[in-house]
Amino acid sequence: MKKKNMMALAVAAALGLGVLPPAADAVSTRDIEQKRGEIDALRSKRSEVQEKISEAQKNIEALQSQQKQVANDIEKLNIAIEETSGKIRNVSADIDQTEQAIDQLKQEIAEIQERIEKRNEILKERLRSLQESGGAISYLEVLLGAQSFSDFIDRMSAVTTIMEADQQIIREQEADKTLKEKKEAELTEKRNKLQADLQELKQLQAELAGQLEQKNRLMADLKQKEEEEHDHKMALEEEKELIAKQEAAVKEQLAELERQKRAEEEAKQRGRTYASPNGGGASSGETPSGGSTPPVSSGAFTRPANGPITSGFGYRFGGTDFHPGVDIGKRAPVVPVVAAADGIVFRSYYSSSYGNVIFISHVMNGQTYTTVYAHLEARLVGEGQHVRKGQIIGYMGNTGNSTGPHLHFELHRGGWNEAKTNAVNPLDYIPF
């Protein structure tokens, strides 16, 4: 057992892990318990995020169900609009036929009117004749002027015929007037009804079109919400994976603390003082073509890249956007990015927002810190890899959601989370 512990110490010293407290401070039980507490907190956080992922999935399924119902409603509305359009065409055709019938009726009415006017002339002549002969008495005079009984019979028959003819004219006159008025009323009523039906159908068509427009807007809104929910779920899944990686890194740090604690106890038993690996770290000594690494400064953290600060920490754009880190502008064709402190890379991947990004976990005097290096052109370290302060880990780039070549650098006092609640101003910790 002692041989294995000594071997572990030798490997740690050779690699310069830099995940332990400085040598002057012995590992305490409190440090170990604190680290275990961090693991429990990360595990709890991961569980919370998983619940949010499940809730997001339920929301997605609910939105998809609503979209299916709206799609059915849209289909029904389209069918109703098609049917209404067909009815409008039929009613319009009926109106055209009615208009043609009205034109025909106008001709018939003109003929009836002509007959009426002719009869009016006959009746007027008859009235003038009656007036000139003294009215109805003239019929009596005609009868009394008979020369014989036979003549009286002939005259009476003639008078009766004339009177019947006059009455027939009047009857025909009244019948034509009644027919004219009836046809006019029937066609007018039919046309008015068809016009009313047409107006009602057009109003129904407009209402259906309005409902269809509302349903289409609702469908677009539901699709937008589903897309946002998918993005939210993806962000949560990414956060969950990051938390899992952080948890793994902290577990490794805990294991290292426990190994160091055991080594200290063994060293005390042997009567000598334990010395931890040098945490100061040194630059890799490599200077890539086209750019140089920043000098490694004293203190806990060093500057991650050369270049001017183009955007600071805090709210910007009129207080509407919180910037959880600092941006360092790219002022050379190739600009190397270095680890700000000794630590463990717990996430190295391509993010839709961060682009090529590296997350490093650091432990200093029992306190966990997390640094983030985003929008890299290239990543030179992988997950689980131990890095030293000043070691080149990648190159400045313009990947992900970036408006220009730069390094977005974040420093968190504690673990990283999507809300960036642990983010602190790097300028308060690093001499830029």
TrEMBL record:
Secretion signal span: 1-26
SUPFAM superfamilies according to UniProt: Duplicated hybrid motif (SSF51261), Prefoldin (SSF46579)
Gene Ontology MF terms: metalloendopeptidase activity
Protein origin, superkingdom: Bacteria
Compositionally biased residues, Basic and acidic residues: 259-269
Pfam families registered for this protein in UniProt: CC_PcsB (PF24568), Peptidase_M23 (PF01551)
CDD domains found in the cross-reference section: M23_peptidase
Region (Disordered): 259-305
Domain (Peptidoglycan hydrolase PcsB coiled-coil): residue spans on this chain: 109-183
Record protein name field: Peptidase M23
Native species: Geobacillus thermopakistaniensis (strain MAS1)
